[in-house]
From TrEMBL:
Gene3D superfamilies: 3.60.21.10
Keywords, in A-Z order: Exonuclease, Hydrolase, Nuclease
Molecular function terms, GO-annotated: exonuclease activity
CDD domains: MPP_Mre11_N (cd00840)
Species, as recorded: Oscillibacter hominis
Domain Calcineurin-like phosphoesterase: 4-116
Protein name (record): DNA repair exonuclease
Domain of life: Bacteria
């Protein structure tokens, strides 16, 4: 039985643009530290083989410290490591992969033609190919058939499964089915996929091991697989230092902080949350600044969004024969004509500020 680790899409040196400069720098350090933690997992978990399916780097511009930490971690794994460069870290003579010498146990595919590396001591062969430009419109798997040489054929590849028009190595289900592979280790999609069998070939995306924004929510990690003859099994291993989570909280007829607290899990201090407040409020709306100060310490980072709407009883005063009534009637017409939530939010804010001005009060 052969144990293997399948990971992809580290995107080392990502800018983490949604965070403060200090937090962004800390997240980059944590992303690099993941490499050492993963090497320790490999050493302690009966892993015989590591498959890394591209976009290890976020771009061709890499800090020397990052390159050194990756090289050291891969060497520390102490088993064969295979890398298939992707669209963000495509192989070229000037890419980070060509920067210096890599440990002897590391094999980096550097051609758009599929190459096979036999590992008779493990009873497997590992195939792979590389992006050699930011786009790869010609399918790298097209026409490939694994050799019948008595070794179990595996492949590590960056690409877009089931997306025929993709510029990022489109891979069809038919190509996978005809490949003769036992397992196709994919990268490119940042959301983990459940393993799927196409023909006799199992394939999966592990997703990214660390989320980088609110488009990469929830648990992140990698696959720990085993190969026993032609039988392949996979187990997802959560591994992220921090999680991104997004919530909607209805604050109608509730104190906003209490409404948020009621839906939070017990521990959030290591994670990054985006919380959208919905429901109905009076014309004062939500004091986001005060709420941020109250709830912020519960999180590594917190983003609050006010998507509440004005209660119907506020609009009822539009019938008054007064300046307030005239103002509300005009804004209600704009509300009714609004074509999307963004326009309705703009009208809501205009009502709140306008009524605050009419009442000679500050809008908190």
């Amino acid at each position: 039985m052969v144990g293997f680790l399948h990971a992809a899409d580290f995107h080392l040196d990502s800018p983490f643009a949604g965070l403060s400069p200090e937090r962004a720098a800390e997240r980059r350090r944590e992303n690099r530290a993941l490499l050492g933690r993963m090497a320790e997992y490999v050493r302690c978990s009966s892993i015989d083989l590591v498959l890394l399916s591209g976009d290890l780097f976020d771009s061709g511009s890499v800090y020397q410290e990052t390159w050194e930490q990756l090289s050291r971690a891969l060497g520390d794994m102490g088993c064969p490591v295979f890398i298939a460069p992707g669209n963000h870290d495509f192989w070229s003579p000037s890419s980070p992969y060509a920067r210096g010498s890599w440990p002897d146990n590391v094999h980096i595919f550097s051609s758009a033609r599929v190459e096979a590396v036999p590992l008779p001591e493990l009873g497997v062969s590992v195939c792979g190919a590389a992006f050699t430009a930011p786009e790869q419109t010609m399918p790298l798997l097209e026409g490939f058939r694994a050799e019948k040489d008595g070794l179990v054929p595996l492949m590590v590849l960056h690409g877009d499964l089931g997306a025929a028009a993709s510029p990022y190595n489109p891979i069809s289900h038919e190509q996978v089915s005809a490949s003769g592979l036992a397992y196709l280790a994919l990268g490119h999609i940042h959301q983990r996929s459940e393993p799927v069998r196409l023909g006799a070939t199992w394939c999966a995306y592990p997703g990214c091991p660390e989320g980088r924004g609110f488009d990469e929510l929830g648990e992140k990690g990698f696959y720990h697989g085993t190969i026993d003859g032609d039988d392949v099994s996979l187990r997802f291993v959560p591994f992220a230092q921090r999680r991104y989570e997004s919530l909607e909280v209805d604050v109608s007829d509730q104190e906003p902080a209490a409404a948020v607290e009621a839906v939070l899990p017990p521990s959030t201090e290591r994670d990054l949350y985006r919380i959208a407040l919905t429901g109905e409020t009076d014309e004062r709306g939500i004091d986001l600044s005060a709420l941020q100060q109250q709830l912020g310490p519960r999180f590594y980072d917190l983003e609050l969004l006010d998507r509440t709407r004005i209660r119907e009883d506020v609009w009822a005063r539009a019938e008054e024969d007064s300046l307030r009534g005239l103002f509300l009637r005009e804004l209600r017409e704009k509300w009714d004509r609004a074509s999307n939530d963004e326009e309705r939010e703009t009208v809501t804010q205009a009502v709140r500020f306008g009524l605050a001005a009419l009442d000679h009060r500050d809008l908190v």
